[in-house]
Amino acid sequence: MIRVNNIQFFSNMANVLSLLFIPVFAASLGASYIDIGFIVGIYSATTLLSSFIFGRLADLHHLRTVLLGGFGFAIASFLLQAFATDPSTLMLARALAGFSVGIHPGALIAYVHYQKQSLGRFISLGSLGWMAGFLVAGLIGVRMDLLFIFSSLCYAFCFLQAFMLKDIKKPKLSDSYFSLNTLLKNSGVYFSLFLRHTGAVGIWTIFPLYLGELGASAFWIGIIYAINPAVQFLVMRMLDPFENEKLIRAGYLLSEVGFISFFFAPSYLYVIPGMFVIACSWSFLYVGSTRRVVELNPDKATAAGLINSMIGAAGVAGALFGGVLSHFFGVRAAILGAAVFSISGFLLYKTLEKATGMQGH
User: Percentage of residues in the chain with pLDDT exceeding 90?
Assistant: First the structure.
């Protein structure tokens, strides 16, 4: 499993290296808050599209083939970002990068499940990759050419690791490519996660700029961002004994607490406790939701890919929401909006789960 673990770590590190300073880089190219919202959102929109398409393909075809194709595309698309010279070309480059990012996660989760490994521990390595990416990006600073090149090299390493993986046998599925049965059957998990993450992305879209306003340097922005995945890595590895249902509910409620704490922060140091809370909330919610849909559905890659699709859809809605709200009402309005979205997600989850009767563990 060491190769699969390496892929999880380095692919997530690659994503973060190209992600952290995108709002700052876009602003340096002349982008407004609304432009930044679209630039961040297009990345998530194409991730949403490819996650659904290739999650389905991975269930119906070979997992290893999907992984190799995704990483090959990512090598080129992440490097292409280094050639962006204005908001429009940056938006195009981010669209291609986002599409490449959505290809492999469903296949990778399915591969780990069929190998009978702990999903919580595997997912935690992605958080470790995020932490490493934030720290490295914070040290390098807004040298986007270096960050984009480094991201591409990380994906090249992932390609080599996937090339050495053995293909595995999995059950044959007869569903059509475009079946929505899995989405509808698990609507309580998917749509509630979409709401909560929409609010979160609304914050993350403008958060580097917000931390800058609170006095944080590029180094401190990297440190503060690294806290979230560092705590996630530790927490996710301890979640195997806990029921999925309890994890999901706790995730929504802790999200509410964390987002509200950001609203009242008088300086960047006061953001740190809230990052610990948000890290726990996402750990509970992401592991509980992913584990639940993978365990309860025969089309494992599709079920896992739809989690990534909801994250992508929330990335689109949240980026636009955060960009527009910050433009007209200030960044604290986006933070308050995230708290509203989080509690709405919790209420929707309880409502839809009761309606569909899907109370599995």
Answer: 37
* Whether 286 contacts 123, CB under 8 Å: yes
How sure is the predictor about 161, in pLDDT bands with cuts at 50, 70 and 90? very high
- Measured N-to-C along each axis, helices 105-114 and 272-296 cross at an angle, to the nearest 10 degrees, of 60
CA 165 to chain centre: 24
CB-based contacts of 147, cutoff 8 Å, min separation 6 = 17, 18, 21, 137, 140
Mean of pLDDT values over 67-75: 94
**Domain assignment present for 152:** yes
Whether pTM exceeds 0.85:
no
User: Looking up tokens 């204005």, which residue turns up?
Assistant: 86
- Could you identify the residue written with the tokens 């029921």? 243
Dihedral angle at the C-alpha atoms of 160, 162, 167, 170, nearest 10 degrees? -170
Q: Is the pLDDT of residue 359 over 50?
A: no
Task: Determine, yes or no, domain membership for 178.
Answer: no
Return all residues near 196 (Cβ < 8 A) that are at least 6 apart: 251, 252, 255, 285, 314, 341, 342, 345, 346
What pLDDT was estimated at residue 344? 92
Q: Which among 291, 295, 294, 290 has a CA at the least distance from the CA of 307?
A: 290
Pinpoint the alpha helices (H) of the chain. Answer: 2-17, 22-28, 33-60, 63-80, 87-101, 105-114, 119-140, 144-163, 181-185, 187-204, 207-213, 218-236, 244-263, 272-296, 300-329, 331-356
Start-to-end CA span in the chain (Å): 26
The answer as to whether 277 is a domain residue is yes
In a domain, 176, yes or no: no
> 328 is in which domain, residue-wise?
2-164+183-356
Cβ-contact 226, 267 below 8 angstroms: no
Q: Which pLDDT belongs to residue 199?
A: 92
Q: Check residue 238 and report its DSSP letter.
A: T
CA-to-CA distance for 353 and 360, rounded, in angstroms? 10
Buried b (16+ CB within 10 A) or exposed e, 144-172: beebbbbbbbbbbbbbebbeeeeeeebee
Euclidean distance between CA atoms 114 and 296, whole angstroms: 14
How many domains would you assign to the chain?
1
